[in-house]
Amino acid sequence: MLARRNLPLLAALACLLGLIAVGVLALLVPAGHERDAAMLHGFVALDHPGVNFEIRVLAHLGDTLPYACAGLVCIGVALVRGRGWRALAVAALLAGTGATTQVLKHLQEQPRVEHWLPEQVATTSWPSGHSTAAMTLALCAVLVAPPALRAAAAVLGGAFAVGVGYAVLVLGWHYPSDVLGGFLVAGLWTSLAVAVLHRVEALEPAGRPAWEPVAAIGAGAVVAAVALGVRADTVALYTLERPTFVAGALTIALLALALVATVSAASTQREPRAR
Questions:
Q1: What's the average pLDDT block by block, 10 residues per block, for the chain (275 residues)?
Q2: What is the pTM of this model?
Q3: What's CA 43's distance to the chain center, in Å?
Q4: 213 contacts: CB under 8 Å, gap ≥ 6
């Protein structure tokens, strides 16, 4: 019980340490930047005219207007469910995560030039604002969803965040470390918000099992693997040629899975009684 009660604070600490580690490796360690650039090269190579429009639409879902609209929907869901504290938490997260990312962008501003890029990544790119926004929305959706729908919210929210993160990389807007940094900023503040909610909301028996988001996303991964099987030769060749890209893509996806699963687990353990 003690470990469960401390889960949000432990998650917040892990996100903070991860954020520091990613920032140091990407911005201060030359070898780290080299790996970062190698991962980006693999993503940028996926951009083709046939899918460029769809990728751009996906990336722009992290823009300010869609972010605000989706955030208002999350607040509305919380209010309809009579969860005023969660509505307040979502409002704070929508503003706080974005503000944190903007502050970090300007504190860590520096050029990261790669001559093979058609357009250089902006000097104020770490962490990624689009990735922060996407993961914040995903975690807020998990936070306000009813227990019966929380696993579904985790699956869809995690897939959305990963999709936006991959899209900004394919378009060459950011380095993979920028996406990881954005996810970790969102995870840090959401974990702290859940820790506060644990203290201000009433207790209620746990709802659905906390492992359901993991199982559901795992099932989705199996379906995706089967779908890719029809082009197994192409996928295998691309993987063998770009192992660093594969490592980066898996790291982003696994971090998203860990964040939505943790917030889902923590939110399920302490759901307020309806009044």
A1: 74 97 95 93 89 94 96 97 95 97 94 86 95 98 93 92 95 96 98 93 52 53 46 52 82 94 80 48
A2: 0.87
A3: 17
A4: 150, 151, 154, 155, 158, 257, 260, 261, 264
